[in-house]
Design brief:
38% helix, 0% strand, 34 residues, single chain
C-alpha cells in the first residue's frame, strides 16, 4: 500500500490512519481448508 510510509514521511512521524475493510465476504472453502 505504501500509504503509511508516505504519511509518516510527510508528517514527520506524527500522522496516523486506520484501515477498515469496505466489504466483508466469507473466504472460499479452498482457502479455509489451508
Amino acid at each position: 500500500m505504501g500509504y503509511a510510509t508516505r504519511l509518516g514521511s510527510r508528517t514527520k512521524g506524527r500522522g496516523t490512519f486506520t484501515a477498515r475493510p469496505t466489504v466483508y465476504a466469507p473466504a472460499p472453502v479452498a482457502t479455509q481448508v489451508r
